[in-house]
Amino acid sequence: MTLRVAVAGASGYAGGELLRLLLGHPDVEIGALTANSNAGSTLGEHHPHLVPLAERVLSETSAAVLVDHDAVFLALPHGHSAEIAAQLPSSIVVIDCGADHRLVNPAAWERFYGGAHPGTWPYGMPELPGARDNLRGARRIAVPGCYPTAASLALAPALAAALVEPAVTVVAVSGTSGAGKSLKTNLLASEVLGSASAYGVGGTHRHTPEMVQNLSAAAGKPVTVSFTPVLVPMSRGILATVTAPAMPGVSASLVRQIYDNAYAAEPFIHLLPAGQWPVTKATLGSNALHLQVALDPDAGVLIAVAALDNLTKGTAGAAVQSFNLALGLSETAGLTTVGIAP
Ligand SMILES: NC(=O)C1=CN([C@@H]2O[C@H](COP(=O)(O)OP(=O)(O)OC[C@H]3O[C@@H](n4cnc5c(N)ncnc54)[C@H](OP(=O)(O)O)[C@@H]3O)[C@@H](O)[C@H]2O)C=CC1
Ligand SMILES: CC(=O)N[C@@H](CCC(=O)OP(=O)(O)O)C(=O)O
Fold first, then answer.
1. Is the pLDDT at 147 greater than 80, yes or no?
2. Do the Cβ atoms of 309 and 245 come closer than 8 Å?
3. pLDDT at 10 over 90
């Protein structure tokens, strides 16, 4: 079975990564590629690494161009997917890499994104309890944010097993591709190179409510999250350090056992051997999340460290993984756990 898929926002970073993965997908034929200001140019002008598609001309983004496909991947800025999706029949699988349909709580949406809540779609993080079943046969999928993927998968097992109190601190460094390719002053090489800078501090980053949503669901009770993102001079990658106060009596061996059990069957969660800590470089281009956990008995905290490629497991890889589940394909088709080194 060959499925015809379209990518809207093909000139952007997430669109380019989707196409890199889809070119290696055994069940996919790549149909329409669309953009906005760059419509009319060739894909090769934006993504010279995507050689087989280099001559393809980008179309305007419209429902008329996207309609004749089995699945449509939307890699558009926030606020643009609901309108397009509403014009596509429910028979087409629509996978939204943006944030528009991730949050369940309309008040959280209005506070962090503004405007009316566009609605909630099945959430594309199969490793969370219950999520995989919601994705099988889904026709609309919300791909998670990159930071929430790292933080949620890092701490969900500990919260689900009540190893920690529901008070979570996340400090995560990210490469600059997380911000997309549009020009921003704080992303100039002269600002980024040789420096690390915190931003969105004090509960203001829009990924905070997504982490709260995921971790509260895992815990089965409300969880608070203090999130501090840090921009660092690398192209791809997120390294998230996630901590929470350990419950009395929790031992390092119990922590290890809970994480081993939680992720033993997960194809894309790589729990590292004890004593080895995640590095972003090992995840680049792969759909794997590398994870390690430890207990700090003096400070009384559990520490989980997760690394992933923000464009792969953090966006396009999660999108393809969810697409596979929705269409009844092998969950791992077109995806790899093999990174690039050195
Ligand atoms: N980068 C990342 O690590 C992650 C990104 N995402 C999400 O993926 C989506 C895309 O992000 P990213 O690729 O980084 O962004 P980019 O800025 O790199 O790309 C944006 C894409 O959307 C197109 N576009 C811009 N404005 C419009 C519009 N008004 N109508 C239609 N298309 C438009 C652009 O076309 P043109 O080039 O012609 O202007 C381009 O193809 C976002 O919602 C983002 O939040 C999610 C997780 C991680
Ligand atoms: C480094 C950097 O700027 N990262 C972005 C991550 C955004 C992202 O990728 O997620 P969404 O899909 O929710 O937009 C940020 O902090 O806004």
1. yes
2. no
3. yes
